[in-house]
Prior knowledge:
The complex is a heterodimer of chains A (394) and B (462).
Chain A: E1 2-4, E2 9-11, H1 14-37, H2 39-70, H3 79-88, H4 97-101, H5 103-106, H6 112-117, H7 121-124, H8 130-157, H9 164-192, H10 205-230, H11 240-271, H12 274-282, H13 288-306, H14 310-313, H15 316-338, H16 351-372, H17 385-389
Antiparallel strand pairs in A: 1-2
Helix pairs in contact in A: 1-2, 1-16, 2-3, 2-9, 2-10, 2-15, 2-16, 3-8, 3-16, 8-9, 9-10, 10-11, 10-15, 11-13, 13-15
Chain B: H1 24-36, H2 41-67, H3 82-106, H4 116-137, H5 163-196, H6 200-209, H7 217-250, H8 262-288, H9 297-327, H10 331-342, H11 346-358, H12 366-369, H13 372-399, H14 414-437, H15 443-449, H16 457-460
Helix pairs in contact in B: 1-15, 2-14, 3-4, 3-7, 3-8, 3-13, 4-5, 4-14, 5-6, 5-7, 7-8, 8-9, 8-13, 9-10, 10-11, 11-13
Amino acid sequence: MNFDATTYRVSDVKPVMTKALGAGILGLLLTFAGYFLKSDQFFFSYLVAYLFWVSLALGALFLVLLFHLTGTTWGIVLRRILETVIMVLPYLAIFFIPILLGMHHLYHWSHADVMANDPILSRKAGYLNITFFTIRTLVYFAVWYYIAKKLYKTSLEMDNGATPEQVKTLKKVSAPGMILFALTTTFASFDWIMSLYPHWYSTIFGLYFFSGGLVGMLAFLTWFGLYLRKKGLLKDVITVEHYHDLAKMIFGFIIFWGYMGFSQYLLIWYANIPEETVFYLARWQGSWPVITMTIVFGHFVIPFVALLPRSAKRNLKFLSILSLFVLIMHWIDIFWLVMPVLHKSGIRFCILDLTSFFGIGGFFMWLFWKQFSKHPLTPVGDPRFKESLNYKNL
Amino acid sequence: MSVENTVAADTFTEPPLIKGNQTFASVTEIISSIVEKKPKKAWFVLFGLASSLVMILLGSIGFLVWEGIGVWGVNNPVGWGWAITNFVFWVGIGHAGTLISAVLYIFRQKWRTSINRFAEAMTIFAVICALIFPGVHVGRVWVAYYMFPIPNQMAIWPNFRSPLLWDIFAVGTYFSVSLMFWYTGLIPDLATLRDRAKTVLRKRVLGLFSLGWRGGNKQWKHYELAYLLLAGLSTPLVLSVHSVVSTDFATSIIPGWHSTIFPPYFVAGAIFSGFAMVMTLAIIARKIYNLEDIITLKHLERMNMVIMVTGMMVGYAYSMEFFIAWYSGNEYETFTFLNRAFGPYAWAYWIMISCNVLIPQLFWSKKIRTSIPLMFVISIFVNIGMWFERFVITVTSLANDFLPSSWDYFSPTFWDVSLLIGSFGLFFTLFLLFIRYLPMISITEIKGVLPQADPHYYENHA
């Protein structure tokens, strides 16, 4: 990779793109081969990997919207990475096709006879049916595509000198964009994850899914920034000051995620209503408590304690390890949300979990690099770019 | 830097936070003079009104203790009436203060400096008002100390699994940390007032409370660190207090109370209502004391944005509850929400929806967002709406529970109303005393956001 420090462009990204595409093709081929061996496992593994990457992209969309709405200064230098991720998000709609094809494996409610014979489920048939499910998914992606494109395009135009109108446009798109984001993300989490247990419900579930994705994206951003740094890219652009703030954000949203998870658990545990406890009961069967406790400690306690000292938040080597750790925890969180539906008696890892992760991830990163290398790697034309570049934590 | 912006940078620079070309001296003068001069006539009129309401409060509490809580409108299914509604309402009001002083501080939002002091004061007074209600609701007020886990010879302990006990810890911690945070912020300003004091007594009293502040480098260093740490400690409290309050309802199995979104939903509502109250008070105070240069339209506009955003968060929670009530397929849940919207309390429900979700949408328009009379009216609507939200939650779920034969309708009595009005009296009395005796805006922090505070200022403006 060659980096031009005057135009902030990167060239010669072929090797990394080939690697990503290779991982994607190989991963998906192996995963699809798995379909012929264990079709249930295939669909569940695929769903976990899919949700992991979608949740990251949704976290990125939230951050871009948030940056524009609050007029963030420190985050400007990071924005192009996020903007590129949100441009990958619409492509993920294509990767939804296998899930649509595997509806009967994944979603109990997709069987008409089950719905008709269950007095509670039959009431939900107006919402939980394949046609409406498909339409909703299309709507989510259409909304995300529209917001992402508008924000990305305007930001690119600003690279050649920004006008106050463009800054205003970004704000004007972001305000309603945030509302649409909140609603679509919530219902996507209801559709894709919560309805795996068609009887179960939790009003906070949308926020839980969103907060996990946000933590994941912040960790990804930290890890990716440090990866670029190692390759000599954006070394003087994303400084230790920005990483310090990113670490604070990870710390803060780890707590936010923990708050959502704890609120849900405490209230369900306390009220002890069978139709709600079923969710946690399934995650306490057999060896599942191991994963459940791994999440409590790995997704909350360890990063919380590790990120408390200021020195830790400014130690880049430490952050590159921690961000990877948080990303893995985020994957485990998604695994924990989805897999107990299939493996009721205990944890069962499968090679397909790994191949589908790299399959979708490889394509994700390939699409990312394709877009990322076309333009300056940071929003050079943003009116407060210089301010962001020289930003210091006091 | 090789890539330069083609557009002049100052097209995008924000106008200064404080208007009127203030100097350090003029800021000190504007804010300190308020507490040093004889109060204005308006102050006396308002204080007279507020303190008469306190008399109503004291009288009502006296009668309540004498007669028992039967004087309220509470009845058999509706065992929690206005008292709990008022408690949640007042605790919620306090949240804006902590959000402004702690959370916005951590997020480096400099505009908070003009409003944080009196918002924090408001927090403390609101919590005092809130604590009255559970205090008198216990019936035998004289043994209220049993709410605390105090070792006693009869070995009677409160139930540690009860959210009502968690409330005592949560609100107690919140009150003490808020007080400490507020006082820490006040120290340099108290020292300023001490240095300006004309009488010996005033000098001595202020000297005592400013803890020997001299404004030395070392003192500032310690002070800044202490302030940051307290901000860090207060931030989780913003979330925890109202989360615990929400568990008073949500840990039960009553439809409409038991909902997993309750903790964040209550926190958002608390911030929403608190900001509305800050707005109401800020507009009045700024007008009476001519503080237009310090609390500028920009500040008010940003607060309106926070009101709009938190209002939408509350709206999100309302819609999630409604959707899940249907989606759950649970007939009790579904009934409760339909009953809220179309049952005997529909009037209260629609007041809540219009005041909290619909009316704040007007702030999408910049014209309304920056019009002082309109934002004043809207802030009052939000205050009303948030009181009704707590009323709707508390009463509708209880009035129509699982057994139709036990349903009843709640109607407030004279004493319900007098206690609510009285608590407003207490709140305003404390607030008026505060603006009379203490600097209602942080002098030091305002100086910190003046352009002159930039170490490089004089290099460019020599």
